[in-house]
Write a structure and sequence with these properties.
By secondary structure, the protein is mostly helical. It is built from 19 helices and six strands. The two termini are 13 Å apart.
């Protein structure tokens, strides 16, 4: 695609700040959602700080050549629950979070060493365009339910049944259409910051609904909880994971370490498959084969060690974010300086209560409107990868069909505490079907 800013381009300082804020908005909801889901006193500010640290580590390992932000990984949620579930105390559970991220990071390091020695040609052989294209689409499509669910919101009708909230839908659709209009018809700067404009528009609509709803006593119209701003501290040190973890070291035993290893290591192999799909997608967007330059071994090291560093501070293992990739695709801004500035901004903002509170107060319906475009662009990026694949050939058609249906259908497999996500299952089945069917000259072997 045509980029307005390439990887090595440097926008003006004022523009960088605005672009970084937009990237932060794109990744924020998911990044702070993980600690909220896990509970046990985990800090959202610390998770945001950890995401910033993890991204900087990733950028260093990839020689500032891969423009993507790392945020809290949803794939490890089950593993994180296991860390607290098998711990004697919450402090020991915090230590388990760091230990688990270390185990996962070691898996990435081991795979990176293998890739460094064996190269990446084998990746293209087992995961050609006919496999990786629909898999990338699944990454976006598998999140479609989340986006639409956030957009619809929920409320109780007269019969006490949970139904979609029309006020949420209105605020979300305003956000969606403002993003679309700004991106398509915007000039210069407007075209580069459609998410900021869209979110502000949606927030204003949600604020009007909230004020009116509070006045007339209509709870369905109250979309923003302004009470979160009361009693907040202007500047506060995030509750870093390593501080609590240090208190629980004495409670750790061999049995608990084994539990953590079993909970984290298999998931790391699953996330490895998604790592490749994400970077293939990003490569098609920026026009550079990132698995070759800076190389898969570097992206793996950056992802794995960055994930550990993120968990050390925020408790959450990190991963490359599809929301960040979607933001790059829609805005045409692949500047690595923007990603670095976003990471710095995440570090700084995590100390300021009002800003973190404001960001967390953005209604889910507004973010749902944004995410429809972000996840949609990921899905479309995957479809673009198979444009040169001959789908008139039944061999290719079966490979794509298996991946799409299993992925969209939500096929998952659980082995004990380890769950293969729909993306992982779809990819594995696609690789198997592609391997067992006879090849011919009509098959497109890799993304060009």
């Amino acid at each position: 695609m045509n980029l307005i800013y390439g990887i090595k381009d440097k926008p003006k300082f004022g523009q960088i700040i605005v672009f970084a804020f937009q990237q932060l908005l794109a990744i924020l909801a998911a990044t702070i959602a993980v600690p909220a889901i896990i509970g046990n006193g985990m800090s959202q500010s610390a998770a945001l700080f950890g995401a910033g640290v993890g991204t900087i580590v990733y950028l260093l390992f990839t020689k500032f050549s891969s423009p993507v932000f790392l945020g809290s990984s949803f794939a490890f949620i089950g593993s994180m629950f296991a860390a607290f579930g098998g711990a004697v105390s919450a402090q020991a559970g915090y230590f388990g979070l760091i230990l688990g991220a270390a185990f996962a990071g070691l898996v990435y390091v081991a795979i990176a060493i293998i890739v460094k020695l064996a190269g990446v040609k084998w990746i293209n052989k087992i995961m050609p365009a006919v496999v990786i294209g629909p898999t990338v689409s699944i990454i976006g499509l598998s999140l479609a339910g989340n986006a639409v669910g956030d957009l619809k919101g929920s409320m109780l009708n007269a019969a006490g049944e949970e139904v979609a909230n029309p006020y949420c839908i209105i605020a979300g659709l305003v956000t969606l259409f403002v993003v679309i209009l700004a991106s398509v018809y915007g000039k210069k700067m407007t075209k580069l910051i459609p998410f900021i404009i869209g979110i502000l528009a949606g927030y204003i609509v949600a604020t009007i609904f909230t004020l009116v709803g509070s006045k007339i006593g209509n709870d369905a119209m109250v979309l923003i909880d302004f009470s979160v701003f009361s009693g907040m501290k202007i500047v506060a040190l995030p509750e870093f994971t390593f501080i609590e973890a240090a208190k629980g070291i004495k409670e750790i035993n061999a049995s608990y370490i084994a539990t953590i290893a079993v909970a984290y290591i298999p998931v790391a192999f699953v996330v490895f498959a998604e790592h490749i799909a994400d970077h293939k997608n990003l490569s098609s967007i920026v026009g550079v084969e990132l698995l070759e330059d800076p190389g898969l071994h570097r992206t793996l090291l950056g992802d794995g060690i960055g994930s550990f560093c993120g968990a050390f501070f925020g408790g959450c293992p990190n991963t490359t974010y599809g929301e960040s990739v979607g933001c790059v695709a829609i805005t045409g801004n692949a500047s690595i300086v923007t990603i670095f500035a976003t990471a710095i901004m995440a570090l700084v903002i995590s100390f300021f209560g009002p800003f973190v509170t404001f960001l967390s107060s953005i209604p889910s319906c507004v973010m749902g409107g944004v995410c429809i475009t972000l996840y949609g662009f990921i899905a479309v990026s995957g479809l673009k990868m198979i444009q040169k694949v001959d789908l008139g050939n039944n061999r290719n058609l079966f490979v794509v069909a298996v991946i799409l249906i299993c992925g969209i259908g939500g096929l998952t497999l659980t082995f004990g505490k380890v769950t293969l996500t729909e993306v992982a299952c779809a990819l594995i089945l696609g690789i198997i079907v592609n391997a067992i069917l006879p090849k011919d000259n009509t098959v497109e072997e890799e993304v060009k």
